[in-house]
């Protein structure tokens, strides 16, 4: 993902980088991808709006937030893709925004996931 991001002119950021979704919400996802076309929204303290791709790694304490609260927040903010990595349950869920709603994206039969973002 990192090499592909650079080739596309995009940028990948890790945790402790806020995404200012609105006046009340500024989550710090585990990993985000920002396309080259939207890099101008990067500011010193974080990113203005929803990034192109958000990746959250579920912990015991974040399960409800990641699967429900953040899902709704990222959907409302127009995040193109939301990936949920759940190591405890050995699950990967990829959601893509279609008509302002997240829909689950398939993983191919050979176990490969291809991002649309």
Written overview of the protein:
There is one protein chain. Helices cover 18% and strands 33% of the residues. By secondary structure, the protein is an alpha+beta fold. The longest helix has 15 residues, at 63-77.
Tell me the number of strands: 9
Determine the fraction of residues in helical runs and give it as a percent range. Answer: 10-25%
Question: Largest beta sheet, briefly?
Answer: 6 strands, mixed
Spatially, the strands of the biggest sheet line up as 1-3-6-7-8-9
Strand content of the residues, in percent? 25-35%
Give the helix/strand class: alpha+beta
What is the N-to-C succession of helices and strands? HEEEEEEHEEE
The coarse silhouette is: globular
Over the alpha carbons, how many angstroms does the gyration radius reach? 14 Å
So what's the oligomer here?
A: single chain
Briefly, what is this?
The chain is α+β, with helices and mostly antiparallel strands and 117 residues long. It contains 2 helices and 9 strands.
List keywords for this structure.
three-stranded mixed sheet, six-stranded mixed sheet, 117 residues, 33% strand, globular, 9 strands, alpha+beta, single chain
Topology:
Blueprint: H1 2-7, E1 11-14, E2 18-20, E3 31-34, E4 42-43, E5 46-48, E6 53-57, H2 63-77, E7 81-86, E8 91-98, E9 101-104
């Amino acid at each position: 993902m990192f090499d592909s991001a650079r080739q596309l002119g995009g940028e990948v950021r890790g945790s402790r980088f806020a995404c200012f979704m609105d006046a009340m919400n500024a989550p710090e996802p585990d990993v985000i991808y920002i396309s080259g076309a939207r890099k101008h929204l990067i500011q010193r303290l974080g990113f203005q709006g929803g990034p192109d791709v958000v990746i959250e790694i579920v912990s015991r304490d974040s399960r409800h937030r990641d699967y429900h609260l953040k899902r709704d927040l990222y959907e409302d903010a127009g995040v193109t893709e939301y990936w949920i990595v759940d190591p405890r349950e050995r699950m990967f869920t990829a959601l893509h925004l279609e008509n302002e709603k997240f829909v689950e994206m398939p993983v191919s039969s050979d176990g490969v996931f291809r991002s649309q973002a």
